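Q: Entry one of two.
A:
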Amino acid sequence: MSTLLEISDLAVAYDGMRALQGVSLHADGGEIVALIGANGAGKSSLLRAISGLVRAARGQIRFDGADITRLGADRIVAAGIAHVPEGRRVFASATVRDNLLLGAYVERDRSKRAERLAAALAAFPILGERLGQRASTLSGGEQQMLAIARGTMSGPRLLMLDEPSLGIAPVLIPQIYSGVRRIAGSGTAVLLVEQNVREALAVAARGYVLQTGRMVLDGPAAALRDDPLVREAFLGIAS
């Protein structure tokens, strides 16, 4: 499978303070890649740099072979990258259907919008039962599903998810990750930022561990689950 996203020696700074230093990673089409680390490790900063919301101080971000390091956020969305930030941020007074269609606002082809809507509802079937409801009436887990589904409506080849299980009732987390697997199964790469390390490494093929802005570990998810650092620092299992 060919590399879709490739990041080399990336550095990001805020007010002179480095949030990321020398970060490199890659993701292939249809692959789920987990990015794990403690609060303040730089995970969200990395997603924001990829999506053009912050500028890289150094390094390169390549997507499908093209250098996107200096592109604006609108051009990065148009290139095929969608970012679902932490906190859901659905349009509370709009219906579920309208929230989803707003995610496809740049797509003028009605048939493509309809295809994407069908795919989003296949990934998260509960939304199909809620299409006419206001988003404010959904549970937190259902709103998270809506936010992710809306992210797919632009037809991205890379979907970036920031803390999709944060604050979600445990009973709904498997449904969220079932939908994420289905999205990846359609060929979309998923870059997953998640503090719920057990869930992240269960769904991902590979993972990276960030500490204070630097990449300290990477490898297959199964190998990371067995790594002493990950087991002790993130899974609560003493070596």
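Q: Entry two of two.
A:
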Amino acid sequence: MEKLHSQVTSGYEKSIKAKGKFTGLLLILSIILILTIILSISLGQVKISPDEVYRILVQNIFGIGNNASLSSGAHFDIIWNIRFPRVLLAMFIGAGLSVCGTSMQAVVQNPIADPYILGISSGATMGATFAILIGATGFLQGFGISFWAGIGAILASFLVMVLANKGQKMTPVKLILSGVVVNAAFYAFTNFIIYMGSDAEGIKNVTFWNMGSLAAAKWDNILLPIIGVGIGIIFILTQLRVLNTMLLGDEAAVTLGLDLNKHRWIIIGVVSIVTAIMVSVSGTIGFVGLIVPHIVRSLVGSDHRKLIPLSILCGAIFMVCADTFARILVKNSEIPIGIITSIVGAPIFMYLMVRKSYGFGDN
């Protein structure tokens, strides 16, 4: 009896400790995100004090403060109309990519899956490039790029899943190879569309946009994408139990009364649409959905009730930092943000493939 009581007490203490660690990380990351936002807005070709950034943001968001000079100062336009919309979009793109990556890893039970590696981003890129250069927007008007990016993303994800499930059971190697094939095919079509395009300025913009950029972020073009990505994130937050069950496998799911196959396709569809929305406004930004969940998983484990919320915060922080470096590393110029994320993400991807033996060598 004493031994049983000791085990129950020990388990309870571990549970309390784990909850305390999660709450602590949530609080710390929230504070870091706020500080990162303020610091990012203060940096650039025109340097602004963090104190001024803080006061203007608080005044305009919460209506706190009665200093009328803040809204008429020389830096107000830079802070509120140029840099803050860009940082806000970076936050949602980072959070969206992290959530999409985490979800795909659960769906395919593979820790090296994400929309970029599995070809979903390349499908969205082809669709968006088609809409920009061919002008295939029609009655869709302002939603044309997002619509065609969505068509491309859904088509790419469908092809990857079909190829990976051909023959015997889907394996990590088959999944990655399918993603490589689909990536190559869609990027080939994208380059063909660019080559055939006659608009020189459009080709230049698409080439830069394909490497990822948040330079076009303005209040009048970020609100709908932010709402779309936010709805996708909220939906995934309602699927945490399903994502945890996917890690247990189909047999365990049957005993819980869940049809995992149906849920897989629903989640893949949502991930594809959210990815398409993000690609339509920011271009192709790779590796975020791979490296952020991996880092968070090393801190709190694979429980999606902890993994997803922390990935949202870490993804937002990472993307804001990456966009800041893209703006300030080269004077009077801007590096495509996709280059920054690839420089960081590619070595981590190689580490996962080689050191962790995900589908290679001995396990």
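A: Comment on entry two: Confidence is low (pLDDT under 50) at residues 359-363. The chain is about 75% helix and 0% strand.
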